[in-house]
Amino acid sequence: MTSPLSETFGFERVSTEERERRIRAVFDAVAPRYDLMNDVMSLGIHRLWKRSVARAAAPRPGQLIVDLAGGTGDVARLMAGDGRRVVVCDPSAGMMAVGRDRSAAAGVEFVEGKAEAMPFADDSVDTVTIAFGLRNATSPEAGLAEIFRVLKPGGRLLCLEFSRPWGPIRPVYDAWSFHVIPRLGAWVARQPAAYSYLVESIRRFPDQRELARLMRHAGFAPVEWRDFSAGIACLHVGGKP
Question: Rounded CA gap, 91 and 77, in Å?
Answer without folding.
Answer: 18
